[in-house]
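Technical note accompanying the year-one report. For the benefit of new consortium partners, we illustrate the data format agreed upon in the data management plan: each record pairs a sequence with a structure-token string. No post-processing was applied to the example shown here.
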Amino acid sequence: MADQEQQVQPSHVVMLPYIAQGHIKPLLCLAQLLSQSGLYITFLNTHHNHKRFANLQALSKNFPNLHFDSISDGLPDDHPRPSFDLDYFLGINVATKPHFKDLLLSYRSNSSHHSVCRPPPPVTCIIADGVLSFPVEVAEELEIPIFSFCSHTARYLWEYYTIAKLIGKENNEEEEINPMPGFDLGCEDLPGFDMEILDQSPSLQVLIDGSLAMQRTSGLIINTIDDLEASSLPHIVPRFRKVYTVAPLHALLNSRLGDRSHVIASDGSLWNADQDCMTWLDSQPLRSVLYVSFGSLVKLSHSQLVEFLHGLVLSGYPFLWVIRQDVLFDDDTDGVIEKEYQVGPKEKGYIVDWAPQEQVLTHHAVGGFLTHCGWNSILESIMARVPLICWPNWGDQCINSACVVKLWRIGVQLDAIDGSSIQSTINTLMGNRRDEFQRSVDRIAKLAEDGISEGGASHKNIETLVNDIKKIKI
């Protein structure tokens, strides 16, 4: 009888994202998709992020097979966690490893404090963010199959497998460094690492370690679109036992949720979205509003914030601007938004701490998106058919921006942070080149839509992933 009960137990997948919002959201979308397919999912966060999740009850209600648990990030609960603390971000691999291992062992012994009364089924496999190398080490120690999840593009991942070729390579006026094979871009589009100290960069080493650890897993799940990365994927695929391209995950999920998608989209966010901005958007003309958001980590100086504000007002277009409470480098500038905002008519702009971005981008009033070029934001903008103004800061944002501007031609880059340049760039996107960018983004969106439709690559790869997990013997 016990053997029969074990046979009918669902496959149990433990999913572990990196600690940043931009990594949590796509993996949570994947968790929801897998839970809909009958898999038992435990989604792990740090204790700190678990407490910040916007609406876990709603997620659990809509996805009965989706459960939540948390582990320590190595810091006391009352310890401050700045929005971008490099030592904290880089230290996660070391600080969290023992807690992750202990949790998996507790599942094995049925001694965990899981979010449901009954103990979870035995762990079938792990899906962990590829930025983290320690889950691979723990999975190998405990002999649990593990898949890597990549929240960024194949181009960005390919960079870390080939960047060693750039270390120590001299670049002089007579010899131009050629683009990397499969990259489609020039070396000027690589993230802003100083080539002279590239091999000594701790952040780069963490990314390289994670990328190399990925290759020891059962497969790579990557939130990208085949047709947009046809040059890079052939270089990635041979390095893995299996590769599942599944983007855009948010759109794939929404296609299966139907009318529930807008209700669920913001659940699981680390910020509470201001829904009142949707009413303001209702009052604005078709494609007239510029949406502005620099994601969950980018910070601005006081002067940059003021220049952005001046440029937005001078452009004449209404704007919806996300300004997080922790967006400024200088903590002594409370109230600067309210003071500086007197430069323009308030009816032309709406400022929020956080917005329901998927809903905003799909609103008929939004005609452009000024963004830091995080991969989630680009995918959401493509699916909403909204052209972009790119202001990349670090990491994959530089490559993403180059793809938007040079390869896909669905936006423009902001080259200078002054009111006049910002005004001019907005007018280019929203005014004299609007139709050009709209045609391009419509074409790219069609490729993405084909991928998530029945028979499309992303649609089939999710089904293949589910079947592969169900075949795992424990």
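Partners are asked to follow this layout when depositing records. The longest helix spans residues 86-109.
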